[in-house]
Amino acid sequence: MAELTSMPSIPKLYAQAAAKGASHQLKSALTGTPLGGLLKKVPLGGSSKAHGNAVLPTERVSVSGHSIERQKLVSYQRLMKDTVRDELPSVFLHAAAFPVALAAMSTADFPLPLMGMVHLKNVVEHRRVVAPEEVLNISAWTENLQAHYAGTQFDAVAEISVGDEVVWRGVSTYLSKGTFLAGKPERPEREARDTDTPQSIATWKLSGDTGRDYAEVSGDFNPIHLGTIPAKIAGMKGAIVHGMYSAGRALAATAPHGQPYEWSIEFEAPVFLPAIVAFEAHASGEAGKTEFSGWNAKNQRRHFVGWVARR
After folding, report:
1. Number of other residues whose CB lies within 10 A of the CB of residue 212
2. Spatial CB neighbours of 11, under 8 Å, sequence gap ≥ 6
3. Basic and acidic residues: which segments have biased composition (predicted)?
4. Among 3, 53, 84, 254, which residue's beta carbon has the most beta carbons within 10 A?
C-alpha cells in the first residue's frame, strides 16, 4: 500500500493529467499517428482471467488521520438543501475520499487517460453514522476493467475507516471513451421506458455558478464544472454540474438520518449549466427502499436514476 503523507491536491492531479494529454496530442500531431492508436499501445489492465496477463495497478493508495473541516460540512449541507446536523452525509464522505481515489487513477502505471473520463454510476455502503469529529483513514484502488461499446470502463473503489472499522465504502464506475480492449461488445438495445413523465416533487434551479459552488465545498475542481471557458478548453460544449452534486441533492431529500443505508445512482445525460432539473422520489416495492430520478424540465430527457435503502 502506498501511504501518502498528506491529502492529494485535486487541481494538481488534474493539471498533471491535462499536461499528459497535451503531450499525447502533440506526439500524435508530430508523428501522424492517430491518438487512439497511441492509446492502444498502452497495456490495458483488468483481471488476469478476463484479459490475459494484463492487469490494472494492484497497489492501494491511502491517507491516514484525515479530519473534517466543520465549516466545509455546514457549507455542503446548506448547498445541498440538507439539514445542518452533526452527521456526515454520504456524498460528503465521497468527497473526502475522492482525492485519494483520483491519486489511484493518476499513478504512472495506470493505463487510461484521466482527462475525459465519463462518470457512469456509484454504488455506496454507508455502514454507520459517522460523526464530524471522527478521524478518517482513507484507501482507494482500481479494479474490474471491462470492455464497453464506447471504450473501456473500470471501477474506482474507496473505503473510509475509523480505526480498523470500515464505515463507508463506495464504488465509482468510469468510462474511458475511445480506448478499447479486445472483444469490443455491441451496443445494447436501449431499455424501453415508460413514456409518461413522472410527477416531480421538486424543481432544482441551477445557476451557472453551481459547479464552482460545489467545487468549493467538495474540493473537486475539475475544469469541466467550473465555467463555460474552462469546460470548452477541456473539450466540453459547456460547463456541466458534478454528478455528485446531483447525488447529494437526491440523498438530501431521500436518505435516512441517524442510521446506516445503501444507495446507488446511474448517470444518463449531463446537466449543462444553467439548468432546471425536475426531481421525483417514491417508495419502491421493497421495504425501506426509495427510488428517485431527475430529468430536464424542458425537454424531459432523464439525467439520472437511483435508489436509497436502509441497511
Report:
1. 15
2. 221
3. 185-196
4. 254
Same-domain status, 123 and 269: no
Which residues are CB-neighbours of 261 under 8 A, at least 6 positions away? Answer: 90, 126, 255, 308, 309, 310, 311
User: What is the Cα–Cα distance from 147 to 287, expressed in whole angstroms?
Assistant: 35
Distance, CA of 78 to CA of 86 (rounded, Å): 13
Q: Which residue has the cell 451557472?
A: 208
Q: Give pTM, 2 decimals.
A: 0.87
pLDDT over 80 (residue 155): yes
pLDDT at 253 over 50: yes
Domain boundary among 115, 150, 185: 185
Q: Which residue has the cell 438530501?
A: 252
Q: Which residue in this structure is represented by grid cell 492501494?
A: 60
48 and 150 fall within a common domain: yes
